[in-house]
Design brief:
There is one protein chain. Strand 10 and strand 11 form a beta hairpin. The protein has five helices and 23 strands. By secondary structure, the chain is mostly beta strands. Helix content is 7%, strand content 32%.
């Protein structure tokens, strides 16, 4: 909370759970997160969660101040970078080791990738019946440049037993109850994802220190998978001989029904599957929805498209509510798991109200649905086409 207030809450450990600091409760000024763009939409302040309006995500590389914030607990106060350590353990590690941040930087080769992070619940607000949780619109996504060491290199330095199937992370954020026996979140990924080139233990975002609310000084980054797997304020990694069973790993958290269900269906825990690679998705980031446009001029629009562990092969837009589609330019990703950029130029037939719809297609030929995809109890993986309003005059 101190990072949000801009100063340490000296007796914060005594503050009752759920109490909004008077600094926020006694002012009519808009709540701001220190270091973040004023345009972020704050969804709640305990834990702090904030998303970014689509028109503020137009940068090719997401700036630090425009990267969304998704917390499950209370970020650590008084981060001591010089004494920050990372311990590798678990049933399937051959030799448990602890590294300081300085040792990680010195011992292992540095790598930099631009990686797409998206909250699994991005777009939850559109589900009906409504799903519990933060009512994310579209802006819990970003693609910044991350620098660190490969998770693979660190795990192999400790040794991986043949029975390893998963890794799980541990972090310095506190559970909302401040109960030290409870972790706020402790998720992970299968070994095949952990061992990929682009899976990083990162200390830098866009060549600067990672912002406090995005995991300073150390975090995991798994591009293309739910951002909940990219643990912030990283202090430990367990190499597991089972699917990791940490906090937020059991149903319904970050799981969807293994088979499609009717809206509102209660789904048994054993019928829920863990979300892994994210589905195909795109966004219109320019212009802002509601723009006025002169009929005589060609209309220009652009945005990003992304998809889990695949690539975006095609991009289309429509101005007639999906009756016809126009293929537009889509760039190649700068590296695996980075989002791609599209540009469109459109001529309108007459003055009036229009919507520009954007639809991406992945390397397997799978396209975004035009409307809300399969309902699920927690409102995950909404990858419906994004649309903006245009008044042609």
């Amino acid at each position: 909370m101190g990072a949000v207030l801009g100063a340490e809450v000296v007796f914060g450990r005594f503050m009752p759970g759920g109490l909004i600091p008077a600094a926020f409760a006694e002012t009519t000024e808009k709540f701001r997160i220190a270091g973040k763009h004023a345009g972020l939409i704050i969804l709640n302040d305990r834990p702090v969660n904030a998303e970014v309006p689509a028109h503020l995500l137009n940068d090719l590389v997401t700036p630090a101040d425009k990267l969304f914030v998704r917390n499950n607990g209370l970020p650590p106060e008084n981060v001591d970078v010089n004494n920050w350590t990372l311990t590798i353990g678990g049933e399937s590690v051959k030799t448990s080791k602890t590294y300081t941040l300085a040792e990680l930087k010195k011992k292992f080769t540095h790598h930099t990738y631009q990686l797409t992070l998206e909250c699994g619940g991005n777009g939850r607000v559109e589900f009906d019946p409504p799903a519990k949780g933060n009512q994310w619109g579209l802006g819990a996504v970003g693609c910044a440049k991350w620098t660190g060491v490969r998770l693979r290199d660190v795990l192999k330095d400790c040794g991986i037993k043949d029975d390893a199937v998963y890794i799980g992370y541990h972090a310095a954020d506190e559970h909302l109850t401040r109960n030290p026996d409870k972790e706020a979140i402790s998720r992970g990924v299968p070994m095949h994802k952990a061992l990929e080139d682009e899976s990083l233990i990162a200390w830098s975002l866009n060549d600067e220190e990672i912002p406090a609310m995005n995991g300073h000084p150390l975090r995991l980054v798994f591009g293309g998978w739910p951002a909940s797997t990219s643990g912030k304020w990283l202090t430990g990694i367990s190499i597991r001989n089972i699917v990791h069973d940490g906090a937020k790993m059991s149903a319904p958290a970050y799981r969807i029904p293994c088979e499609p269900v009717a809206p509102g269906t209660k789904v048994a825990a054993e019928d829920m599957c863990i979300i892994e690679s994210m589905p195909i998705k795109s966004m219109v980031t320019f212009p802002k929805s509601g723009v006025k446009h002169a009929l005589k001029d060609e209309f220009s629009a652009n945005g990003h498209a992304w998809v889990g562990d695949k690539t975006v092969e095609k991009m289309h837009v429509s101005i007639d509510f999906g009756q016809t589609w126009q293929e537009v330019k889509i760039s190649k990703p700068v590296n695996r798991n980075a989002w791609q950029h599209w540009q469109a130029k459109v001529k309108f037939p007459q003055a009036g109200y229009y919507e520009l719809w954007a639809k991406a297609t992945d390397s397997d030929g799978v396209s975004q649905p035009m409307i809300l995809p399969g309902w699920n109890p927690k409102g995950y993986l909404n990858n419906a086409c994004h649309r903006i309003a245009i008044q042609v005059v």
